[in-house]
Write a structure and sequence with these properties.
The complex is a heterodimer of chains A (114) and B (113). Chain A is mainly β. Chain A has strands at 5-7, 10-13, 19-24, 31-38, 42-50, 53-57, 64-68, 74-78, 87-94, 104-105, 109-113. Chain A is 0% helix and 53% strand.
Chain lengths: 114, 113
């Protein structure tokens, strides 16, 4: 079974631009969670989607948004990019997002904001 | 406020010996815990998990111990192998908090041949 895939793997943007990242979950998984990893803050939860609905949200500004499609694929969008948004963005999929469901991570998208 | 803490940023052990990685948590609502391993330029890989109704879970060379009263868990790797060299993250989840894991800062393990 194929793992979680994320595209693109690397991205360079300038301040003020917006960016869209994509995540394809493991086949059969309906929950997708997004995380931001930075050297200072570690791995932090952004949001979780299930059946095209955002069910849970972390403590990030409204510039960070996402959506999920009927095939469970998910995208996250960051608008008006800031230097501090430079990070590794990871998505993870699980069967249903229950707190005891194991989350499996993709390789991440490395975003650099100049 | 860091709810999951890994107080040792790094650990170095000799090949064949035991590696013990520690994790503390503060939120008593956490009842499910996971360990992930991460290599550079890759996403975290799931290793092992434990529910709060247990105090030990084993999977091959990996054993996780949970001490609920101390709000402490540890990951034992026996025997350690050079390929185990990576960053190890402890994560916790709570009922009702769908799809959300709270991670520790990670411990870099180096296994020397």
């Amino acid at each position: 079974k194929a793992g979680v895939t994320q595209t693109p793997r690397y991205l360079i943007k300038t301040r003020g631009q917006q960016v869209t990242l994509s995540c394809s979950p493991i086949s059969g998984h309906r929950s997708v969670s997004w995380y931001q990893q930075t050297p200072g803050q570690g791995l932090q939860f952004l949001f979780e989607y299930f059946s095209e609905t955002q069910r849970n949200k972390g403590n990030f500004p409204g510039r960070f948004s996402g959506r999920q499609f009927s095939n469970s694929r998910s995208e996250m969008n960051v608008s008006t990019l800031e230097l501090g948004d430079s990070a590794l963005y990871l998505c993870a999929s699980s069967l249903a997002g229950a707190h005891t469901d194991t989350q499996y991570f993709g390789p991440g998208t490395r975003l650099t904001v100049l | 406020d860091q709810q999951v803490k890994q107080n040792s940023p790094s650990l170095s052990v000799q090949e064949g010996r035991i590696s013990i990685l520690n994790c503390d948590y503060t939120n008593s609502m956490f009842d499910y815990f996971l360990w992930y391993k991460k290599y550079p330029a890759e996403g975290p890989t799931f290793l092992i998990s434990i529910s709060s109704i247990k105090d030990k879970n084993e999977d091959g060379r990996f054993t996780v111990f949970l001490n609920k009263s101390a709000k402490h868990l540890s990951l034992h790797i026996v025997p350690s192998q050079p390929g185990d060299s990576a960053v190890y993250f402890c994560a916790a989840s709570a009922a009702g908090n769908t799809g959300k894991l709270i991670f520790g800062q990670g411990t870099t393990l180096q296994v020397k041949p």
